[in-house]
Amino acid sequence: xxxxxxxxxxxxxxxxxxxxxxxxxxxxxxxxxxxxxxxxxxxxxxxxxxxxxxxxxxxxxxxxxxxxxxxxxxxxxxxxxxxxxxxxxxxxxxxxxxxxxxxxxxxxxxxxxxxxxxxxxxxxxxxxxxxxxxxxxxxxxxxxxxxxxxxxxxxxxxxxxxxxxxxxxxxxxxxxxxxxxxxxxxxxxxxxxxxxxxxxxxxxxxx
Length: 207
Ligand code: URA
Ligand code: URA
Fold this sequence. Notes:
Shape: globular
Number of helices: 10
Order of helices and strands: HHHEEHHEHEHHEEHH
Radius of gyration: 17 Å
Bound molecules: uracil
CATH architecture: 3-Layer(aba) Sandwich
């Protein structure tokens, strides 16, 4: 028995002295066993999220696809390769940011997550945001944006500006999967992420 287990009666509960990395690891262990919704029945893996535990930028997608479900990592398929290029274009390595999803388990046939699935999964994302404490949040696609901002607006009604939500400055843009289907959206997406970068520099790099 280690000293830790002798002196800490609840080694699994996050404590006030834990680092963001430790808190995320603890939360990830509880997500790994989650059976709160039907998506747990068809998943291969829970895709918790990954990245810099103290990132200034937190990227939120919709939910894992087939490749993500297989690898247990977010945005590693075709959409993920495009996301990596979008981030690099504004000077971020993948490891600089934190990447998560609205739902942690793959919806069958890549359908949109249902509202009860979103509601049962949301506490994980809310805790991830609380732990990482980003300044800026990038919301990819309408599902992520409507869920976080609590509205039913169209993508085009939300993109192109900074939207304050709680203590976070949010930017909404097209989901990479949408860009792969409709390249005409790449230009407005480019404008959105340039605006994001300028805002990030203002709020994260000042002083
Ligand atoms: N699309 C998403 O929304 N999230 C992923 O992790 C991968 C693809
Ligand atoms: N419409 C959506 O709902 N999402 C996108 O990413 C683009 C268009």
